[in-house]
Cytokine-inducible SH2-containing protein
Amino acid sequence: QIMQNVLPFRPHPLLAEEKIRRQSLRGIAVNLSEQIMQPRSVTVFQGESAPAFVAPAPENNLPRMRDPEEDLLCIAKTFSYLRESGWYWGSITASEAKQHLQKMPEGTFLVRDSTHPSYLFTLSVKTNRGPTNVRIEYADSKFRLDSNCLSKPRILAFPDVVSLIQHYVTSCTTENKNEAPYPPASVHHLIRPLGRKDSAPSLQHLCRLQINKSTAEVDQLPLPRRMGDYLKQYPFQL
């Protein structure tokens, strides 16, 4: 004890070295733990590709089921328009249509029932080579002229047959015939419909055609409701 009080305490050099070594090791351990806790970025080297994530197909891309009632309503509306037109000849044959059109001017046409089981209607028209026939196809609640598979996507489709016929008649009588892309050659000659001889158009129907030619906004006319409903039953010019 006397020696401890007189002489100052000097740590043994080996003990001091051991303490320094422990502190160094403790510091290294702390640094390693901090590095482990820190997030590290992942580098994708060239030549490696991360697996592509393929999202599940949404339900909206699934094919929509056709509603039979929608088709029935569309076809029923077309039949109603055709009966009002006066140039729908029903279930006559191709030879009968040829007889009716043979002596008519070029561009005269009529619509009849198709004798082919896969089609509903057929357009018969008088061309410079004589009467010819073009089937009218129905698919997805739309009507279009029958054509080959290559040009079919470019053929216009319409909600009813009268709208189809009126479009091609209008495009044939205007200077710009490019409005009807890729129709059959015979459709370039649609000019006037051939009315049925056994059912002459009424005076009311003729007035309705003239009103439709004068304006497309029938709702804006100051007419009684009953007369406005009559005009809407056949909103065409043919």
Summary: The helical segments are 2-6, 13-37, 68-85, 94-101, 161-173, 203-214, 225-232. Confidence is low (pLDDT under 50) at residues 1-11, 32-37, 41-48. The radius of gyration is 42 Å.
